[in-house]
């Protein structure tokens, strides 16, 4: 079984390296390297956006949550699609019209570039790094589980890190986009196949399927037999704070998705705002279909495999691969596992390129060197070098944390920072004439600090573990949580907005108001937007 | 001419007064009004419709567990969110054709005016 998995892994790696080689010949120049020459087609970018977004957290994570906590897990699925309406209605087109490579381009239009870019870059790097570490730890644990005899956790993490560096350094945005497209197609294909097999198991009767979902049998911690209706809400989000946590999660998704740097950079890879819009719609079709199918993945795992078996064979994250094994044997198990691996690899590559773009374009060129490249090609060179830095940091932290580390909160944190720091300042800079530099800096700082601070004192970091839990699986602070919710959005998003608004009101900056008309016209009409380059 | 308009050699640059003039033109105000009239209600509708889900599921779980056609209200309402999101996206794409048309006129005027005034609109 491990042999088949290994062959499939290697096949995917070989194909993606081939793409990287092809892309490396087409990645000369900044626009080619950072934005794939802005020549990606709408449907291609749509698939790539979906690929960037459907991480292992959704494929393995949501299937697992539904398999163990039923309906409440499906609520994640809903939020992850609906969030794209914010991207579509509010963010994608103005960003494409007014910006060049990063979200900070839009902010820097009428605000003082250096402080704003420095903060925006810090926030981008924070979001990308947290998200990346969660993926890397997941990848390491997955590979170890699947290829236990061949590869250790540390080797797996290092391998994933090196591959993502290779994609980004040599292939730039073009290679990253195509790795993303292939992975998204594989993921959709695998999910459709798995869903059909689940329904075939129930003789294509929705009545039988949902009937079984109504009576999921498992054993609780004390060994007693439990029969639960998995369509019943409330298995995960229990009173008193559950409902509030659910709303807080919804806020982080609805406002955070439109502030995720690796999603935002994708809109610079297409020729114009209309194509950016169409690519969001393509992405919504794929993402929506995928998340509806988590019904079959999650409930299928709960009913066909059962929580008891999953718990003793790798835990919640293995629900989807184990379902594949139960339905169609080891080859299909290996195939689904290889898809999960491809998913992680593609997502970390997307995160790496957004982090390195922000570092070199925002921080190196615009903050340190006042917007001037000292020699041609410096910006791309710095991005390539920083990819090694980002990769090394991610590998190092993932190895330090180890395979059992509790990292699920890192994804929640990434969304919270995106929603509380990035989104308020992007929205206010596009829509509020009075907005200024002090507002942007304080909005980013307050949003960032509030998200991190609240997560630190939340049940994700603070809890009293029994002595049987050891090492990095233990909560960082052994005490009762001060903030009762796992998702800080409900408090940190308003704080981000308040920070941005107060910062603006206590300072005066006439130039930012004068230049508002320019940004308004550019972002709404596309006048003078960055054009697609020749190959 | 249109080919040239969509692919100018360099980014459009203009003086402050040109930007102000475009921003205060009737055509631009029409574009903004057309966008607002769709985007604001659409945004508010989807936010209210979406947050109705966690609120109802969180605070009225018994009611939402009511069985309907083999599943329950909670699942049907969650499923409806996908179709409502797709519907809003579809309506937006249709409405956005009008935005594109209005924006194209503004861009063309601006580029022609600049060509008439000499480089940079100065």
Describe this structure in words.
The complex is a heterodimer of chains A (535) and B (122). In chain A, a hairpin with a 5-residue loop joins β1 and β2. Chain A has one domain: Sodium/glucose cotransporter (Up-down Bundle), CATH 1.20.1730.10. Chain A has a two-stranded antiparallel ribbon. The mean pLDDT of chain A is 89. Helices cover 72% and strands 1% of the residues of chain A. With 535 residues, chain A is mostly helical. By secondary structure, chain B is mainly alpha-helical. Chain B has one domain. Helices cover 80% and strands 3% of the residues of chain B. Chain B has five helices and two strands. A two-stranded antiparallel sheet of chain B has the order 1-2. In chain B, α3 runs antiparallel to α5. The two termini of chain B are 22 Å apart. The N terminus of chain B is likely disordered. Chains A and B meet through α5, α6, α10, α11 and α13 of A and α2, α3, β2 and α5 of B.
Characteristics of this structure?
heterodimer; A: 535 residues; mainly alpha; Sodium/glucose cotransporter; two-stranded antiparallel ribbon; B: 122 residues; disordered N terminus
């Amino acid at each position: 079984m491990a042999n088949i998995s290994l062959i499939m892994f290697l096949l995917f790696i070989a194909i993606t390296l081939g793409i990287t080689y092809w892309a490396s010949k087409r990645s000369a120049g900044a626009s080619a390297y950072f934005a794939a020459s802005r020549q990606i087609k709408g449907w291609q970018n749509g698939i790539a956006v979906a690929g960037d977004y459907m991480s292992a957290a959704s494929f393995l994570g949501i299937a697992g949550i539904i398999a163990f906590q039923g309906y409440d897990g499906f609520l994640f699925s809903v939020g992850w699609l609906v969030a794209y309406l914010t991207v579509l209605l509010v963010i994608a087109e103005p960003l494409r019209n007014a910006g060049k490579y990063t979200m900070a381009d839009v902010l820097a239009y009428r605000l003082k570039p250096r402080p704003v870019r420095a903060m925006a870059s810090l926030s981008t790097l924070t979001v990308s790094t947290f998200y990346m570490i969660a993926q890397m730890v997941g990848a390491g644990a997955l590979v170890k589980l699947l290829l236990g005899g061949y590869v250790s956790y540390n080797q797996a993490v290092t391998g994933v890190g090196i591959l993502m560096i290779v994609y980004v350094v040599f292939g730039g945005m073009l290679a990253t986009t195509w790795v993303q497209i292939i992975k998204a197609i594989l993921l959709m294909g695998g999910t459709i196949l798995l869903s059909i097999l689940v329904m075939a198991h129930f003789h294509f009767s929705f009545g039988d399927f949902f009937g079984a979902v109504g009576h999921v049998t498992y054993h609780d911690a004390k060994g007693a037999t439990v029969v639960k209706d998995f369509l019943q809400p409330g298995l995960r989000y229990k009173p008193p704070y559950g409902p509030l946590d659910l709303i807080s999660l919804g806020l982080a998704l609805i406002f955070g998705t439109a502030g995720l740097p690796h999603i935002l950079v994708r809109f610079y890879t297409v020729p114009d705002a209309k194509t950016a819009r169409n690519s969001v719609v393509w992405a919504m079709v794929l993402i929506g279909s995928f998340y509806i199918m988590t019904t079959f993945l999650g409930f299928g795992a709960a009913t066909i495999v059962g929580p008891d078996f999953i718990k003793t064979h790798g835990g919640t994250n293995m629900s989807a691969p184990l379902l594949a094994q139960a339905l169609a044997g080891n080859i299909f198990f290996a195939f689904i596992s290889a898809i999960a691996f491809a998913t992680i690899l593609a997502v970390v590559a997307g995160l790496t390129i957004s982090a390195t773009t922000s570092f070199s374009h925002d921080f190196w060129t615009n903050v340190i060197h006042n917007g001037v490249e000292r020699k041609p090609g410096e910006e791309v060179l710095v991005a390539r070098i920083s990819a090694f830095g980002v990769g090394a940091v991610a590998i190092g932290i993932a190895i330090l944390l180890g395979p059992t580390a509790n990292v699920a909160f890192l994804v929640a944190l990434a969304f919270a920072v995106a929603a509380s720091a990035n989104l308020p300042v992007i929205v206010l800079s596009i829509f509020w004439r009075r907005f200024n530099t002090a507002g942007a800096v304080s909005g980013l700082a307050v949003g960032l600090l509030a998200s991190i601070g609240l997560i630190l004192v939340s049940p994700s970091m603070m809890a009293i573990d029994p002595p049987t839990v050891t090492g990095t699986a233990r909560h960082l602070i052994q005490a009762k949580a001060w903030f009762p919710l796992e998702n800080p959005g409900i408090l940190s998003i308003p704080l981000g907005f308040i920070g941005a608004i107060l910062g603006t009101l206590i300072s005066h900056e006439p130039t930012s108001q004068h230049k508002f008309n320019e940004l308004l016209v550019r972002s709404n009409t596309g006048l003078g937007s960055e054009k697609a380059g020749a190959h | 001419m249109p080919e040239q308009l969509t692919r100018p050699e360099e980014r459009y640059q203009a003086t402050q007064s040109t930007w102000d003039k475009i921003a205060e033109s009737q055509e631009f105000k029409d574009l903004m009004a057309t966008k607002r009239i769709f985007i604001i209600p659409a945004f508010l509708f989807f936010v209210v419709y979406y947050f109705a889900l966690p609120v109802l599921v969180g605070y009225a779980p018994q009611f939402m567990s009511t069985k309907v056609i083999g599943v329950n209200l909670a699942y049907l309402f969650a499923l409806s969110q996908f179709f409502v999101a797709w519907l809003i996206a579809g309506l937006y794409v249709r409405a956005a054709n009008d935005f594109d048309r209005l924006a194209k006129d503004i861009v063309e005027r601006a580029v022609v005016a600049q060509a008439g005034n000499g480089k940079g609109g100065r």
